[in-house]
Structure formats: C-alpha cells, structure tokens
Amino acid sequence: MSVPVLVSDFAPDAKADLAVMLTGGGARAAYQVGLLKGIARHFPNLRIDIVTGVSAGAINAVFLAAFSDSLASKVKYLEEVWMTLCCGSIYDFDWKTFMPFRSALSSILPKRNRWATTRPRGMLDTSPLRSLLCGVVQVPSWMPIPGIEENIRSGNLTALALMTLDYSTGQTVRWVQGRYFDVHEGPNRRTEPTRITVDHVMASAALPFVFPAARIGNQWHGDGGIRLAAPLSSAVHLGATRIIAMSTGYHRTAAEASTPLVSGYPPAAQILNQLVNAIFLDAIDEDAARMERMNEMLRKMSPDEHGGLKPIDLLVLRPSIDLGKLAADYESQLPRKLKLLVRALGARETESPDFVSMLMFEPPYTRRLIDTGEADIESRIDEIRAFLGEQPAQIEAAG
Asked: Most buried of 70, 80, 216, 295, CB within 10 angstroms?
C-alpha cells in the first residue's frame, strides 16, 4: 500500500533528489566517515536531500541530518567525534552480566532469587554511547533532536529515516521525519512518522544479544538490519531519484569466496561471522541487484508503461579491502575482558573475524577505516563525478 503522508508544513510537491543510505556494521561505520570525507573534499557543499540509516549507520545518518553546516564541516566534526572514541566510549562489559544461560534460568527460578531481578538485556551495556550521543545533540535521549527539524524547516533536508525491528511484533519499522513521503506498508514492515530522538538511534544500532534493545513508546526495538530485506526502499519511498549506498561489506572475488577461512570444525566466532554478514552486509547486494534489474526493465519500456515506477540511479560504495580481516590486526587492543571472551569463542581461529570488527571501536582501527574510505573515493572519483552529474566547481558555486 502506498499512501501520501504530510508530516510538516510543506506542500506535497516538495521534490527530493539525492539520497545517502548508510548500512550497518558496528565499528565498521567508521569506513562510511572516510567515504563522506572523500566526497566532501571534492564536493564540499554537496546537498544531500534524503538520509537513511540502519544499525550503526543510523549514528552517522543523524550527524548528517542534525547539523546545518556544509557537508565538509559536518564530516569534519563527525570525524573528530569518531577519533575520540574507544570501546569504553560505546559500551561497558562486565562478566557478571554475561552468562548465556542466565536468562533461561531466571524464568524458572523463584522470584526471590536475585537473578530474576537482574536479568541482563545484552552482553554489553551501551549507556556510554547513549550519553555520548545526547552530549553531541544536546538533548536527553527521549527528546526530539532540534537540528533535524530545523534543517527540514529551512529546506536543507527533505527527510531522515531510521530503521528498527519491533521485537514484540517482528515488524521492521521505518521511522521517518520529513516533508512529504509515501507510506509503504506490509505484513512485516510499517512506517511511523515521528520526530527522531537518540532513543531511535540506540534502537537501530542495538546489535541482537550484544547491545540491549531500546524502548520507543511502549515497545522494545532492536537493530533494524535484522529483517531488512530491501534497505534501499526507504530512500525510494522518500522520493529519491539518485541513491549513494555506503556499505561496510567487502565484495569478495570468486576465488576468495571459495577459500575456507577456518580449518576443521568452525568455532563459535566463525558461525557468528556468518550471522553478522547475513544480517548486516548481504542485504544491500541483493537489493542493489534487484534495483538494477528493475532499472533495466524500465529503460526498455515506454514512459506510459511504467505504471508510476521510475528508474533510480544507484551508486554502491564499498571497501576495497576486507574490514573483517583487517580487524584481526587490531584484536589485541580490545578491552581485556572482551578480548578474553572473543578468543574463547575462537576469533583467532578464523582469518576474518567479522564479529570482532563490529566491536573494535579503537582509534588505530577506526583511523585505518576512515583512511581506507577516503582512498576508495579517490580511486572512483571520476565515476562519482559522473554519477552526481556536476563538476566540483559547479557544486561550490551553487552552495
């Protein structure tokens, strides 16, 4: 079902164009900062009309939507924040909260047992991240972020959308703050017009079992990437005609894909790696392939046969190196207790510890990711210029 919804004081003919879609990946989202930094170097005043984010990409998405400076200024601030982070800035880890069987036991133990009242909600406590984000946007976690509303009102932003999973219903929820957009509903998805808060960001980035769910209204929400089969659809329904999708997943060659990363029985870390990739990294590839097939079909049809559909220009940016393998070089820098845990899970037995890469919020690793993102932009700058359809000088003049 597609129903027009007016969320602000704007006329329904408000036009959107360029969208940036930011996928998940935990600490890998630092790579997106590098991509944005590289683009901002060549297009410092580039206007991004629509921003969508899921999982850790929701953090970067809110930065783009909440500040009113030029793209170059926003990205500079975003990089500064990332480079002040460490694991302790994002989460706390306590052995007492990590007992995989504890939740099950608490449901059958007598109520007087202390476990029943201290049941952990996640392996890690993300209170530090919540405090960090509240400090950046300067409002409590439950209050609307003022910069987003101001950018929409001034015309600097058309819409921001963040995705979460409603744990009570199993539906993917698209939270949208913006001007005029279509609501696309289905049995496993719904759209909620809202005023975005830090709670929405915390929910979208809540890795299942690892980070605790966040409460929005009366429901508990977790990582929006869990059941998100079509991550590009939000930008399309918000009116985008061009989408830059920033993925943190490395596209392996055929030879790499068929080479085992472990020998013998797979350790728990390798199984977690496959779950991580299936949930957070593979969906963008499948959705991009579907979009390209649809574009090809529409281009072969006459305009009056499109039935309201339109071709969408898509540019997918992804790492030129395996960020999971790269994380193995920095695994020793994890906090001691967490390092012992991931090693017990067999992280050192796999060549590409993707699960570890999501938790590696340490400056040497994130610095490397940012630098990699910048370099990847430079290697594709001619393609990016062609996609944007403007030369840097033209964009600067327009700003």
From this structure: 216
SS3 of residue 293 by DSSP: helix
Task: Give the per-residue pLDDT at 7.
Answer: 40
Helix 29-42 vs helix 363-379: angle between axes, to the nearest 10 degrees? 40
Alpha helix (H) ranges present in the chain? 29-42, 57-66, 71-83, 87-90, 102-106, 127-137, 146-154, 198-204, 233-237, 254-257, 268-276, 282-299, 323-328, 336-344, 354-359, 363-379, 381-388, 392-398
Please state the rounded mean pLDDT for residues 359-370: 95
Tokens of 24: 């998940």
Higher confidence at residue 225 or residue 167? 167
DSSP string, 192-241: EE----HHHHHHHT--TTTS--EEETTEEEEETTSS-S-TTHHHHHTT-S
Residue 326 confidence (pLDDT) above 50: yes
Can you tell me the distance from the alpha carbon of 178 to that of 239, in angstroms, rounded to the nearest whole number? 11
Query: For position 281, what pLDDT does the model report?
Result: 66
Query: Of 142, 240, 155, which Cα lies nearest the Cα of 195?
Result: 142
Whether the per-residue pLDDT at 212 is higher than 50: the answer is: yes
